[in-house]
């Protein structure tokens, strides 16, 4: 990995982690939607394991408002309170399983998982992260996802 790639990764992760929970969700949804055709060949081999499938199914079975609540809790583990789903399943996943989990969620956005509204405009901070992550190197993007998930 070159120093430019390391700098890109550190800067991207830092900016992402400074976002609020809803901005983090929107960045993940928008980026995964854009690159979902390219991720499986590199990182997932399009294989969904039982743990990720179970968690995706749990979220799909929730009403849409609760889906958002559950996803918020997954991207911001520090939130205290009741959970819509058992978050320990997610926290016990390895990074590749988390990558697969978010990929499979993205595949279902707008169908069985609440989607990003067509008229949604990301915040200025979220747009900065998205713009930074528009990289032709998909492996850099996968490395970013692995660091933030």
From TrEMBL:
Record flagged with keyword DNA repair: no
GO biological process: light absorption
Domain OCP N-terminal: 6-149
GO cellular component: phycobilisome
Keywords: Antenna complex, Chromophore, Membrane, Phycobilisome, Thylakoid
Annotated InterPro entries: Orange_carotenoid-bd_N, Orange_carotenoid-bd_N_sf
Superkingdom, taxonomy of origin: Bacteria
Provenance organism: Nostoc sphaeroides CCNUC1
DNA-binding found in the keyword field: no
GO molecular function: chloride ion binding
Family stated for the protein in its record: Belongs to the orange carotenoid-binding protein family.
Protein name (Swiss-Prot/TrEMBL): Orange carotenoid-binding protein
């Amino acid at each position: 990995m070159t120093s430019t790639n390391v700098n890109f990764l550190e800067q991207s992760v830092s900016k992402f982690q400074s976002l609020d929970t809803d901005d983090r969700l929107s960045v993940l949804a928008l980026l995964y939607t854009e690159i979902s055709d390219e991720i499986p060949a590199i990182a997932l081999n399009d294989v969904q394991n039982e743990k990720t499938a179970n968690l995706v199914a749990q979220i799909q079975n929730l009403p849409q408002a609760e889906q958002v609540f559950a996803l918020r809790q997954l991207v911001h583990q520090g939130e205290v309170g009741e959970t819509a789903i058992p978050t320990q399943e997610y926290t016990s996943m390895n990074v590749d399983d988390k990558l697969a989990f978010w990929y499979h969620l993205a595949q279902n956005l707008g169908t069985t998982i609440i989607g990003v509204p067509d008229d949604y405009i990301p915040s200025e901070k979220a747009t900065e992260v998205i713009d930074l992550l528009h990289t032709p190197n998909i492996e850099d993007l996968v490395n970013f996802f692995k660091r933030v998930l």
